[in-house]
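FIELD: query
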Amino acid sequence: MTLYRLRMDSSSGIGPLQVAEGFDHGLFQLALFLIDWDSTYRERFVRWVPSPDGDLLVVHIVHLDAAWRGFGLEAALTAEAIWSLADGCCAVVADLHPDACPDHGFTAGMPWPPASSAAIGAVWEEIGFRRLPSLYLLDTAEEEPRDLRRQARSRLAALNDAYPNHR
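FIELD: result
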């Protein structure tokens, strides 16, 4: 899993767009869609996130080996990773089309595409992301994603409890 935290008030003087541009073209395009060059959120973002105070967490790549798929782990593990890093972020975003090959070498040895957009979209929605015209968005101030995380944790605990019985 690759996540980027775009800091809106960086003490280095380097804005979030310059940081995103230095990592990956797709990350930069997504950031540019949401953030102006003066390091403020664009009007569309403010319409989607009523309290746009904080950083932006971008889920860039998610990969779960095939051997681990199909057990209901995807949403639980992804939610835990996101919420562990989302403190101080007003939102978390993910690309609407994750099966478009990213332009960096991390994925060079991975099968491509890793999963269909529909399958990944179902995981995003199970975590509490809203599908918007160009991306998936999770508003960290909303209660529903927190409730969904608790449900995912319960399912993961039940799976864990059932596992010792099958050894």
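FIELD: remark
DSSP finds six helices and five strands in the chain.
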